[in-house]
Amino acid sequence: SQSVARCILQAAAVHLTPVTLELGGKCPCLIYGRLDMKAAAKRLVWAKFFNAGQSCVAPDYILCTAETRDMLLPFVKEALESFYGSDPQQSQDMGRIVTDRHWDRLVEMLKKSEGKIVIGGESDKKTRYI
């Protein structure tokens, strides 16, 4: 929030410390038109799963037609398997959630969601895996 950013900048200014604040917001991904679905899925998976989605440029949601969604999903599954293997929970490359508090928050958010899980859905608090 703006008040948090202001406090950080004031604390840094006392020591003449250069500061860059990254304040994330919404990051939609628009997929439309004639395109290479396999390449789009690979780029989408990379951007979303980089650092377990804990990046301000990680796509929050995709805007596309139902037809595009249905064409894209098999390629998303393929890209996930390419990056993290058939069991992503065992992958050394699959990031984990930073803290238990954030893991709890995300799992609760998923429980409240009315969305349909089409790929994955597993979680493990001990390793903070989602």
From TrEMBL:
Could you name the domain of life of the organism this protein comes from? Eukaryota
Key words of the record: Oxidoreductase
Molecular function terms, GO-annotated? oxidoreductase activity, acting on the aldehyde or oxo group of donors, NAD or NADP as acceptor
Cytoplasm found in the keyword field: no
Q: Which Gene3D superfamilies match?
A: Aldehyde Dehydrogenase, Chain A, domain 1 (3.40.605.10), Aldehyde Dehydrogenase, Chain A, domain 2 (3.40.309.10)
Tell me the ranges covered by the Aldehyde dehydrogenase domain, including all copies: 1-126
- According to the record, the signal peptide region is none
Similarity-based family: Belongs to the aldehyde dehydrogenase family.
Q: What is this protein called?
A: Aldehyde dehydrogenase domain-containing protein
Q: Species name for this entry? A: Cirrhinus mrigala (Mrigala)
